Write a sequence for this structure.
C-alpha cells in the first residue's frame, strides 16, 4: 500500500514517509547511485531529520567513479513499491 505524501522531500525521514528512494549524485563527475532511506536510517537513525545539504559530511559517501566526496541528494520520483 502506498501512502500519500504531500510536501517537499528534504530529509531521509521525509523520503521514508513518502516511500521514495534518494539519488546520491557526485558533484564532481556526475556519477549517480540510488539509495534506499530504510538502509540509511537503519545504519544511523540520528541523521534522519538532517537536511540533505548537511548530510554529505555525516555520511562520508565516496564516489565509486572518481573517489571524491562532494555528494548531492535528490529524491526519486517513483515510490519504492513500484520499483523492482
Amino acid at each position: 500500500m502506498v501512502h500519500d505524501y504531500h510536501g517537499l522531500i528534504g530529509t531521509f525521514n521525509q523520503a521514508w514517509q513518502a516511500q521514495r528512494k534518494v539519488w546520491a549524485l557526485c558533484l564532481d563527475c556526475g556519477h549517480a547511485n540510488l539509495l534506499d532511506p530504510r538502509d540509511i536510517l537503519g545504519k544511523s537513525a540520528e541523521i534522519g531529520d538532517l537536511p540533505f545539504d548537511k548530510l554529505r559530511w555525516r555520511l562520508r559517501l565516496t564516489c565509486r567513479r572518481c573517489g571524491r566526496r562532494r555528494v548531492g541528494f535528490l529524491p526519486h520520483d517513483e515510490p519504492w513499491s513500484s520499483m523492482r
About this structure: The chain has a mean pLDDT of 83. The beta strands are 20-26, 32-35, 71-79.
